[in-house]
Amino acid sequence: MGLPDAIISPRLSWQPAQAIKQLEAIIEANQHQGITLIGSSLGGFYAAYLAEKYHLKAILVNPAVQAPVLLQDFLGPQLNPYTNEEYELTQAHMIELEQLVITEPTADLYWLMIQEGDEVLDYKEALKAFPKTARLTHEEKGDHSFTEFERFSAEILRFAEILTE
């Protein structure tokens, strides 16, 4: 299997429970292969939940560890800027997110990648939620997109055990 075949980047539902079901189906269909999850922002929140549920490695990039709290400010009609899909975020969705919160992460499953310049999330919350990890990348500057993420490509492939050199 070549590298492009080893990477799955699905378009997920905006509804938390539906997004998790989509991801669980992918994990279960590929469980015979080594799986490492990579998630940024809300995707990092989802990745942490799934890492614990399936005991998988996960790389969390500026994760939204307090998603149920943060998204309270966005209740009501929304527009996905990437797909132009209109939807309404409700309190029921916040309850779905609450069910995904992990309280005792398994340290050796995670690589936490944070940048202090994240203009959306407080990096200190991620450090509190993941006080111990297998690996930590903590940079002073940067932004929510994790500036120059591609610098870590080879290390990510090694962490995922795709690249063994």
From TrEMBL:
InterPro entries: AB_hydrolase_fold, UPF0227/Esterase_YqiA
Name under which the protein is recorded: Esterase YqiA
Taxonomic lineage: Bacteria, Pseudomonadati, Pseudomonadota, Gammaproteobacteria, Oceanospirillales
